[in-house]
Amino acid sequence: MLKIGISLVALLAATPALAEQSDSIVVTALGIEQPRDEVGQAVSVIDAQTIETRQNVSVADLIATTPGVRFNRADAVGGVTGISIRGAETTQTLVLLDGVKINDPSGIGDAYDFGNLLTGNIRRIEILRGSNSVVYGSQAIGGVINIMTGEPGDGFGGSASVDYGYADTVNAKADVSGSSGIVAGSAGAAWFRTDGISAAQGGTEKDGYENIAAHAKLKLSLADNLSLDLRGYYIHADLDTDIFFAEPMESTDSSKLNQYIGYAGINLTLFEGKLTQRAAVTWFRNDRDYFSSFGDYGYSGTNLRFEYEGVYQPVDQAKLVFGYEHESPDYDFYGFGSGGAKANIDSVFALAVVKPFTGLSLTGGVRHDDHSQFGGATTFGANANYTPNGGATNIRSSYGEGFKAPSLYQLYDGFNGNPALQPERSKSYDIGFDQSLDGGRALFSITAFRRDTRDQIYFDGVIPPFGQYINLTRTRAKGVEAAVTLKPVDALTVTAAYSYIDAVDRSEGGINEGKLLPRRAKDAVSVSADYIWSFGLSAGATLTMVGDSFNDAANTQSLDGYALMGVRASLPITGSLEIYGRIDNLFDEEYATVYGYNTYGRSAYGGVRVRF
């Protein structure tokens, strides 16, 4: 594996320069649509075609093939899954779904669990790497993951698919979309179930999983300059699992999740299009229930937000983005006692995008958040992008500050909470270079980065009587990210991503000073290739290699690196009917992303898709 990894790294390094996506528009950098040559930050895009072609079930598995990302999953599909960007904590990743912030207010660190987010109705994913709290506020320390379902299309159409495979797994989904007059809408549903495998390594009892998801969008164009957006998403999941006690042990434990996501917004354009405004109310609720041999317990987290955003562009060379947000996160807990807490956060922000001359775009901004518990936090950010040739070459750099408010659990838990906690703070720097060659047939990108984090929240188990959360840890992450997309002929697409991340604990005098942060492999490589034959057959493969890491902060429990190969194919039978299939972990690699938890060996699946 090491030799293969070195060869791939050398191949990437020898390429003239490195790029991530051909998508010319991104929305995550400022929360509005922007051309790529206006963005100085590193953003990767996974589009609808890639999602369909790869055939991945889990959103986390797709994201893990992009630069700078590490993920860990405790259990098989459906198990708790965290995403780390550029070596940050999984709690320091901000996640949006159809414009709604979905980090869980009832979680220990407000992290979003990707275990129950499947690809069923997802059509686009953007991953912004680097601190960006000016735009998004708390938690955007490592980066932002923006997940989107399909937009309503013209006319009427839809698709449906079902596949079956290893462990009696069934994966079915359907979408419809249409428009008529002032109304446009889309809706979809997905169902996934599997007998699964034992969550505990070495176990024999299968732990099954079922996931039901549904989404809907409705847009009403009330006037040329006025529209109404309604969006909703729902997930229900049932998981059988094995209890964690030192190491996972076989048991009959299970959990249930219900997740509700809602968005209602109004869009208004004034002054001949120079001022666009958006006002919205968003709602997120996450109910988690656990059924254990030790007793039943559960958490409920809710976040109600009001958002106002304005974009004023008096001339083509300048625009101002400004806004106000109010959110009210709260959580409740039952079992082993009961409790709950609430907070209020008010935020204002402003950013300016200026193009002083052709090819140069400068962005800078400031944000202030006022938290009902710890007071205020002010963050700054700036980035630049210069293209001398209309976007074929982009030289970019960015500076971003991030902060993460202590979670309600960390502040108010009756056993371990600490109301005196202060927010975690970060400073992030990167510089990068993108190049497009031969009319876009070769896209290359390379980025170097560094992030310093202070006042990171740490659980000190020594503080009597039960331990307590304190602001103690300092960390530093630095590294290099590279990506390439090649399309030498129309039928062949090759993509590759590599990242080196050196993430260490820098807490002076701390017991883990100088140690690598847990579950952050230094090296990771992903290479994908897909070819479409003249008679319609599409065949492809993805190779993902991840280096060694440690499971714990003390670096005493190692996790071996691994290499996974997946192959896939699809064949159209008619213009509207297609058959497809894949084999995951082709070489039956034994590996773990969390110590003691099982992962799938070689597994095969096949299905049929219809479009209308």
UniProtKB/TrEMBL annotation:
Signal sequence residues: 1-19
Q: How does it sit in the membrane?
A: Multi-pass membrane protein
Q: Does the keyword Membrane apply?
A: yes
Give start and end of each TonB-dependent receptor plug domain: 37-144
The alphabetical list of record keywords is:
Cell outer membrane, Ion transport, Membrane, Receptor, Signal, TonB box, Transmembrane, Transmembrane beta strand, Transport
Q: Which GO terms of the cellular component aspect does the record hold?
A: cell outer membrane
Task: Report the residue ranges that make up the TonB-dependent receptor-like beta-barrel domain in this protein.
Answer: 166-586
Instruction: Please tell me where this protein is predominantly located.
Output: membrane
Query: Where in the cell does this protein reside?
Result: Cell outer membrane
Per its UniProt record, what InterPro entries does this chain match?
Answer: Beta-barrel_TonB, Beta-barrel_TonB_sf, Plug_dom, Plug_dom_sf, TonB-dep_rcpt-like
GO biological process: any one? monoatomic ion transport
Key word Transmembrane present? yes
Domain of life (superkingdom) = Bacteria
SUPFAM superfamilies attached here? Porins
Give the record's family classification: Belongs to the TonB-dependent receptor family.
Q: Which PANTHER family does the annotation name?
A: COLICIN I RECEPTOR-RELATED, TONB-DEPENDENT OUTER MEMBRANE RECEPTOR
Q: What is this protein called?
A: Outer membrane vitamin B12 receptor BtuB
Q: Name the source organism.
A: Sphingobium herbicidovorans (strain ATCC 700291 / DSM 11019 / CCUG 56400 / KCTC 2939 / LMG 18315 / NBRC 16415 / MH)
The top of its lineage is: Bacteria, Pseudomonadati, Pseudomonadota, Alphaproteobacteria, Sphingomonadales
